Amino acid sequence: xxxxxxxxxxxLLMSGCSLQxxxxxxxxxxxxxxxxxxxxxxxxxxxxxxxxxxxxLLEGFxxxxxxxxxxxxxxxxGYASFSLAFLEETEPERASAxxxxxxxxxFQRLGMTxxxxxxxxxxxxxFVKRLPxxxxxxLPALFWxxxxxxxxVNLNRDDPQAIFDLSKVKAMMNRVLxxxxxxxxxxAHLFWGSINGSIPRMLGGDPEKARESFEHVIELTxxxxxxxxxxxxxxxxxxxxxxxxxxxxxxxxxxxxxxxxPGYELMTSLAKRQAESLLAQKDDLL
Length: 286
Description:
Elements: H1 2-13, H2 16-39, H3 44-64, H4 69-87, H5 92-110, H6 124-130, H7 139-155, H8 160-180, H9 183-198, H10 207-220, H11 227-237, H12 243-255, H13 265-280, H14 282-285
């Protein structure tokens, strides 16, 4: 009984702010399970509604506890994934804005690391020099910030700022590869495949390097991460005008079972939707 009274007294002596932070940290931990549930949702319509509402709730928690690293990582990943899954194809301008929102949350999280304690450098040279200071514990923030930034660059290729920013994104993705090449289904390799496949040779693109990157992602994920096939078709088969490969890759996606990657049915549904869309555009693409 004395122990119980002591604990209650200690709690009462704590400030309201401290109690609030304890509650927020506990709740933010529960949100990681919510993220898992969202990735496991096969219905894209349900997922879109759920993601949007949960992101605003997370933002509210972030305002109450702005230094919570987990919240910042989830906001970066959540907004970047939302833009890719639900906005990029139909609302590119809105997608661009959301990608930047995700990137800025990522910058806040990276600003808590030893590498970027003094802020995010504007000069590319200074920025790149700090990347080796990031360790494995910083990997989620590094990858999702780079992912969001890459999404914005991809949608704004006519903007000189995007060309300037791409060098920084490339450096970030290279650091991801150094830390863990398989992180989020080889996402950094998927980035390089998309870059090398979508940029003309005269501007530094390399279709064969793109093919190698996509094949490597397929190998790393045992062929279960279907987005890799979609990007392979979109950024390699199209650029090399390989109609047979284009058809084969996208039909593999459509024929795959929904449970091919348990726990990530949302990604599988997204891959199938994008495969259908690309096949419908085939005459314009090839």
